[in-house]
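Entry 12.
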Amino acid sequence: MSAAPRHRRLLPALAAVPLLLTALAACGYGSAKGSGTAAGSGAAGAQKLSADTVRLGYFPNITHATPLVGEQEGIIQKELGGTTVRSTTFNAGPSEIEALNAGSIDIGWIGPSPAINGYVKSGGKSLRIVAGSASGGVKLVVDPKKITSPEDVKGKRIATPQKGNTQDVAFLNWAAEQGWKVDPQSGKGDVSVVRTDNKVVPDAFKSGSVDGAWVPEPTASKLVSEGGKVLLDESTLWPDRKFVITNVIVSKKFLDAHPDVVEAVLRGSVRTNAWIAAHPEQAKASANAALKRLSGKGLPAEVLDPAWQSLTTTDDPLAATLRAEADHAVTAGLLDKPDLTGIYDLTLLNKVLKAQGRPAVAAAGLGKQ
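Predicted 3D structure (tokens):
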């Protein structure tokens, strides 16, 4: 993959670090509090690794298919042997970063904005990105009665999840490249940006208070199920239609103390992604069963099916796309240029991939020095 997408004018950017340390993750929803804890048990009679327990964190969301399926099917626990998995689910990235910093979780699945914010805020001391998890799953969905072409977006009201979050900045960049002027703070201008929580967007769309939304899954497919039309799939703006939406991060302290445990979790992640690719329909049902178990409610087929189709699980963290996102945030004046050198440590992932006869993945110059 090249270091940056072909069309610079259409790229999303990361949220500004000073502005958005409390922003939602790219794929997060709802409040900033953790929403639950679940405990697994180590395999009976199996040997424990260097830690008795590993604490995982992720969202009960389809963009976190890897941990949803990996735990539901027991794939991650199998790789850990006698070491017990304990999982906590979160609704937003900042709370997961807080939990990682506090030592409440050891390894997490999370979007690019909170990962980079957490890394920069800690001076590079708190975390490392150790693998990829998912790509894609972001769309501009519009009311087809009001908008039939990109030009029609001018003068309309478009929802984004939160001021300055990844999708918000992506839409602001796209609007600017259409020649439209929008104040990034107020959202007012040639197009009105309406910052609205993803849980509220469907009602706002239904009532007509917004004319469209640049949002992640499954909100995008929910809007389509209620009469919306996809005007733009963000994946079409990237080389090979790939861009990071979910990564695997680990506490630097835990990584240094328990590399064998991190390696086992990464084996589980890699094998889960392979199982998802080989059994997409079964994996989709497994992910939805996990969502129902964790949140009490699965996704209906008319939402689940297109949302699942628009996402791709990946072991590659797609580091070049994160670098491009950060560069464009800087260009937009929303981020002081950060030093991201060392945010990735792909040593253990590449060890796992090599053992399977697969090629190594790269950190786009942002790896362990």
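Annotation: The first helix runs from residue 65 to 72. The radius of gyration is 20 Å.
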